């Protein structure tokens, strides 16, 4: 394409803005970018470092950029209890930091057994009990995988998972000592996390500025429900979401704003990604059987409960509710109609539908689309954005494209950082249910 003058400058600016938005979305989903795995995104971050830092400063987040590491330091997730469910076990999180403390004094190339033995020495010094067995090996494996995801430990010869199968397996690892300090999230000189751990955590968890809280939630969560907001947050949502605050923030991430009576969301346009795995660890909805079941069950609840949020215990207007046992009964009936074998459900699902229900719940809760309280299912109005798939016939599909996806990442503690969870824009041809009505 050839053009002159002003048109050329506009095209270049648009390309740059798209590149910056792509880096911001990637960082929101994956706060650690390491060389060898993320070279292309690191190069883009280095080209646009100042612009990235300016955009992230509006969220109170800081960005480290170097030749081989880009590290986004974020705030804790807005729904920490829900995000914790997706995180590694508390024992694995503990061993992340025990291994990090041990690694500081070890050589760069080391066998996995040496690192584990050094970690046990640190555990003894810290008063952490060590009970040998399968659970401890699982915690060691998960902790080392977390360090690998952050580029602090790398597999040189062998796989960490091999240790889980055979504790005597020799696996050669490489330790990147310069990245160890970046494990401490949002370190501040004002509060010492060693001498004042409770005050440090409290400062991380409570942001006093309502505008910053709202900006973080829009970028970092699937959807904001008005029923969860205080007066200051509601005022920001009414006056500034589409004005001088929310709109520029959404544009910098390459997102659009969706505002309805019951809430709001930053939306990922379909053309902004190629694969669902670009959107984090819990995309929704995909064609996986658990998520298709989740949509069918939510549709069942929505069309059966006609009280429109007026039922006692409802989180707010537009939420639809049903006893969890009745939801399980509906799923059991569907499961009884599914054959096992090729094209059907696995025997685990047909004989134990409660397991399938638990998995469907986990996906919905992780994306702020369901609340389970006192034996009741409460379905978010945001589920009205998607048309439920037909519940018969049901086939098992583990992966594949979806009509809409959410952007999310496991999180919930100081080890696994939160990542952006943004509802994807529905296809204009999809039928829109009545739950999430347009704002008057």
Overall description:
This protein has 440 residues and is an alpha+beta fold. The protein has 3 domains: 6-73, no CATH class; 83-183, Orthogonal Bundle (Arc Repressor Mutant, subunit A), CATH 1.10.10; 209-440, no CATH class. The chain is built from 16 helices and 12 strands. It has helices spanning 6-29, 39-47, 49-57, 80-84, 90-103, 112-126, 134-149, 160-165, 197-205, 210-220, 231-240, 246-252, 289-304, 324-336, 347-351, 353-366, and strands at 32-34, 62-65, 69-73, 109-111, 153-157, 172-175, 224-225, 256-260, 263-267, 320-323, 370-373, 376-379. Helix 13 (289-304) crosses helix 16. The two termini are 44 Å apart.
Secondary structure layout:
Layout: H1 6-29, E1 32-34, H2 39-47, H3 49-57, E2 62-65, E3 69-73, H4 80-84, H5 90-103, E4 109-111, H6 112-126, H7 134-149, E5 153-157, H8 160-165, E6 172-175, H9 197-205, H10 210-220, E7 224-225, H11 231-240, H12 246-252, E8 256-260, E9 263-267, H13 289-304, E10 320-323, H14 324-336, H15 347-351, H16 353-366, E11 370-373, E12 376-379
Antiparallel strand pairs: 1-3, 2-3, 4-6, 5-6, 7-9, 8-9, 10-12, 11-12
Helix pairs in contact: 1-2, 5-6, 5-7, 10-11, 13-16
């Amino acid at each position: 394409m050839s053009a002159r003058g002003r048109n050329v400058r506009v095209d270049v600016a648009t390309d740059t803005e798209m590149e910056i938005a792509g880096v911001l979305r990637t960082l929101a989903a994956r706060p650690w970018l390491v060389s060898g795995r993320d070279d292309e995104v690191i190069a883009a971050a280095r080209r646009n470092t100042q612009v990235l830092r300016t955009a992230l400063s509006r969220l109170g987040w800081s960005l480290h950029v170097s030749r081989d590491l880009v590290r986004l330091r974020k705030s804790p997730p807005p729904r920490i209890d829900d995000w914790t469910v997706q995180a590694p076990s508390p024992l694995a999180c503990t061993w992340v930091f025990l291994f990090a403390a041990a690694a500081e004094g070890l050589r760069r190339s080391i066998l996995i057994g040496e690192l584990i033995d050094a970690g046990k020495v640190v555990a003894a010094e810290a008063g952490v009990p060590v009970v040998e067995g399968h659970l401890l090996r699982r915690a060691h494996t998960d902790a080392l995988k977390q360090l690998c995801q952050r580029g602090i430990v790398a597999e040189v010869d062998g796989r960490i998972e091999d240790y889980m199968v055979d504790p005597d397996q020799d696996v050669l690892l490489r330790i990147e000592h310069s990245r160890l300090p970046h494990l401490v999230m949002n370190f501040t000189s004002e509060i010492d996390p060693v001498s004042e751990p409770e005050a440090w955590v409290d400062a991380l968890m409570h942001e006093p500025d309502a505008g910053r809280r709202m900006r973080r939630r829009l970028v970092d969560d699937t959807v904001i429900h008005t029923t969860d907001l205080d007066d200051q947050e509601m005022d920001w949502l009414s006056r500034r979401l589409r004005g001088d605050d929310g709109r520029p923030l959404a544009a910098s991430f390459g997102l659009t704003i969706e505002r309805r009576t019951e809430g709001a969301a930053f939306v990922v346009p379909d053309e902004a990604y190629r694969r669902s795995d670009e959107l984090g660890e819990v995309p929704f909805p995909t064609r996986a059987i658990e998520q298709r079941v989740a949509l069918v069950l939510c549709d069942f609840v929505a069309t059966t409960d006609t009280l429109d949020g007026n039922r006692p215990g409802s989180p707010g207007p537009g939420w639809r509710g049903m006893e969890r046992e009745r939801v399980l009964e509906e799923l059991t009936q569907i499961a009884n109609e599914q054959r096992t074998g090729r094209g059907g459900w696995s025997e685990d699902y047909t004989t134990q539908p409660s397991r399938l229900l638990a998995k469907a719940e986990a996906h919905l809760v992780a994306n702020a689309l369901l609340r389970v309280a006192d034996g009741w299912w409460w379905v978010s109005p945001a589920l009205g954005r998607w048309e439920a798939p037909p519940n018969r016939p049901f086939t098992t599909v583990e992966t594949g494209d979806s009509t809409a996806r959410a952007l999310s990442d496991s999180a919930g503690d100081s080890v696994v950082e939160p990542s952006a969870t943004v509802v994807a824009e529905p296809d204009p041809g999809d039928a829109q249910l009545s739950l999430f009505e347009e704002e008057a």
